Amino acid sequence: MTDKPIRIATRKSPLAMWQAEFVQKALEQAHPGLVVELVPMVTKGDVILDTPLAKVGGKGLFVKELEVAMLEGRADIAVHSMKDVPVDFPEGLGLVTICEREDPRDAFVSNHYLSIDELPAGAIVGTSSLRRQCQLRAQRPDLVIKDLRGNVNTRLRKLDEGEYDAIILACAGLMRLKMEDRIRAAIAPEVSLPAVGQGAVGIECRLDDQRVRGLLESLNHSETATRVLCERAMNNRLQGGCQVPIGSYSELQGDQIWLRALVGEPNGSKIVCGEVTGPAADAEKLGTQLADQLLADGAKEILDKLYGNAS
Ligand SMILES: NCc1[nH]cc(CCC(=O)O)c1CC(=O)O
């Protein structure tokens, strides 16, 4: 019945490989006898390394090749960092499983300083994320933000070579790669609101593949899924991509969900922030509601300007 192997399309970066192997092991454990194979591939986002992602443009630079492989039947599932998964999916594909979330916070990483507060005026901080840049600039306009691309290992190497006084990464990636000793401080969500879905791994597959969908069911973590779908509904309404500083974070408290989100100018000169709380059963509705609230409070002007729709 379940003899056909399941093939996982994955990027080749160490973090992507870790995540694919994590899903491979979880599937093999849940379904003894099932064979799960990895199909490593290179995506456009892995090739273009010299330009900030926000300038390369286009959503889903890291997922398109994986999706084509599934549509062409060369792979059955793709494992993604949820924060890299675009709002929309190609016809026939969809996200069916969200695994348990790792620490969603941003990480302050430095060889000389223990926290953002310790950084002297003029210190050079590496990040290419407009979201991280916006929030840092708003709090510390005296810092110098310098672009930093590449996978987690590349970014750490550039820090060690002395190009930066500190860099900002995601705690989750460092923890998965067993490099948590690099985290000088986990940055509180109030200081750096994480990216939508940060710290969670999601699985995409062909929606008509009932066998694979059934096999994936036990890997879904419903609390994480509720939180991530709430954050994504907010982002969806804003049509957020990587060209826009958008942060978001949610938590479950019993049967209630609390969601915070922000939209900012890349230079931190303006940040529109809001919160909403309500029944977890309405998670996606609440996400959309918060997005509408942000748009009414000034996020629309920021987004129009960034997307070049200004009248
Ligand atoms: N954009 C790259 C990316 N995608 C997911 C993670 C970290 C792991 C996660 O959020 O699940 C990272 C690296 C980083 O931001 O430090």
Chain-wise SSE layout:
Elements (H helix, E strand, L loop, with lengths): L5 E6 L2 H17 L5 E6 L2 H4 L5 H4 L7 H8 L5 E5 L11 E6 L7 E4 L14 E3 L3 H10 L4 E3 L5 H9 L5 E5 H6 L8 E3 L13 E6 L3 H7 L5 H17 L7 E8 L2 E9 L6 E9 L3 H25 L4
Bound molecules: the ligand NCc1[nH]cc(CCC(=O)O)c1CC(=O)O.
Family: Belongs to the HMBS family.
Protein name: Porphobilinogen deaminase
InterPro entries: HemC (IPR000860), Porphobilin_deaminase_cofac_BS (IPR022419), Porphobilin_deaminase_N (IPR022417), Porphobilinogen_deaminase_C (IPR022418), Porphobilinogen_deaminase_C_sf (IPR036803)
Number of strands: 13
User: What's the oligomerization state?
Assistant: single chain
Q: Supply the helix-strand structural class.
A: alpha/beta
The major pleated sheet works out as: 5 strands, mixed
Helix content: 25-40%
The largest beta-sheet arranges its strands as: 2-1-3-10-4
Tally of individual helices: 10
Give the overall form.
Answer: globular
> Helix-strand pattern, N to C?
EHEHHHEEEEHEHEHEEHHEEEH
In whole angstroms, the N-to-C terminal distance is: 59 Å
Low-confidence stretches: none
Q: From the 3D coordinates, which CATH architecture of the largest domain would you assign?
A: 3-Layer(aba) Sandwich
What CATH first level of the largest domain would be assigned? Alpha Beta
The CATH homologous superfamily name of the largest domain equals Periplasmic binding protein-like II
CATH topology tier name of the largest domain: D-Maltodextrin-Binding Protein, domain 2
Strand content: 15-25%
Bound small molecules, deduplicated? ligand PBG
**Mean pLDDT metric:** 93
Number of domains: 3
Radius of gyration: 19 Å
